Amino acid sequence: MDEKKLKVLLVEDDQMILDMYRLRFEEEGYDILVTEKGSEAIELAGKEKPDIILLDVILPEIDGFSVLQTLKADMSTKDIPILLLTNLGQESDKEKGMTLGASDYFIKSRHTPTDVLKKIQEITNQEITN
Question: Which of 42, 44, 68, 91 lies 20 to 30 Å from 74 when distance is taken between CA atoms?
Fold first, then answer.
């Protein structure tokens, strides 16, 4: 059995949400990288090659859609699954995210960290232990 820790990059500018997800993912045994800025997310993704990225859309400096577009255009990061985790609930926002290459789109107020973990498990073929 592969004991490799799943590396997750969490890009979120709301400290409460960031802490909530970081704690839940650490409990699950994931290796968590965090940043509040889109520009840092692009840099971290290229350097660290996470197994999956959770990306907010509303971010300082560069929005999540631009980060997504940049990562999907880069040969070294284009295959990393990206889940958009946002408060933007408009169907047009979801369509935009999916068109740009997101693996899925979660509205924060409608999903718990466990819901997101289940999607990560599905995408990465990992098992949730708790």
Answer: 91
Please write the tens of the pLDDT for every residue from 52-96.
Answer: 999 999 998 899 999 999 999 999 999 999 999 988 888 999 999
Among 48, 41, 39, which Cα is nearest to 10's? Answer: 41
| Phi, then psi, of 82 in degrees rounded to 5 | -125, 125
The residue count of the chain comes to 130
**Domains located in the chain, CATH noted:** 7-123 (3.40.50.2300)
The Cα 121–Cα 130 span in angstroms is 12
- Give dist(CA 16, CA 2) in Å, integer: 32
| Burial status of residue 125 (CB atoms within 10 A of its CB: 0-12, 13-18, 19 or more) | exposed
Which of the four pLDDT bands, split at 50, 70 and 90, describes residue 1?
very low
pTM for this structure? 0.91
